[in-house]
């Protein structure tokens, strides 16, 4: 009886070591567009190391082929780098201007609610629109305004000349709260 228990225990321990060893072996299933060079960069290894580990004589691999990865990977998935740049990333900015910003609503005295570019602010109170001097910021430009966010240069105003902008606010209380501020404006690339 003791021999059976001991031999059963020995088999269980040996099985554990076998399964632990295989469960830590990281693998990758080849997808369309991948090659060993792509995988080497993705998993921080070399093409030679991948070839040696998988007994490959050439660098040719096939879609759906499962290859082993080096032990330092240990079933970790590759970390994808966020390649999407934010709107205000320097590579997305045409120019940066320091400007004076005031605010307006679609219901101000003499306002129709329709911008110079035809946007109906009364029907679309959630739009982010600024009034600009088109000599400084062309109409239709996408901009980022400090404290306001991303907007479109979609309107002009009689008092908006030079480095001045007017921000559309959907409520008069919001426009009054904004007041007059010096802000950074970034004209974004399309």
UniProtKB/TrEMBL annotation:
Domain of life: Bacteria
Aminoacyl-tRNA synthetase is among the record's keywords: no
CDD domains the UniProt entry points to: 3D_containing_proteins, LysM
Keyword list, A-Z: Signal
First and last residue of the signal peptide: 1-25
InterPro entries attached to this UniProt entry: 3D_dom (IPR010611), 3D_YorM (IPR059180), LysM (IPR018392), LysM_dom_sf (IPR036779), Resuscitation_pf_RpfB (IPR051933), RlpA-like_sf (IPR036908)
Domain LysM stretches: 26-69
PANTHER family: CELL WALL-BINDING PROTEIN YOCH, RESUSCITATION-PROMOTING FACTOR RPFB
Name of protein: LysM peptidoglycan-binding domain-containing protein
Species of origin: Solibacillus faecavium
Lineage, opening ranks: Bacteria, Bacillati, Bacillota, Bacilli, Bacillales
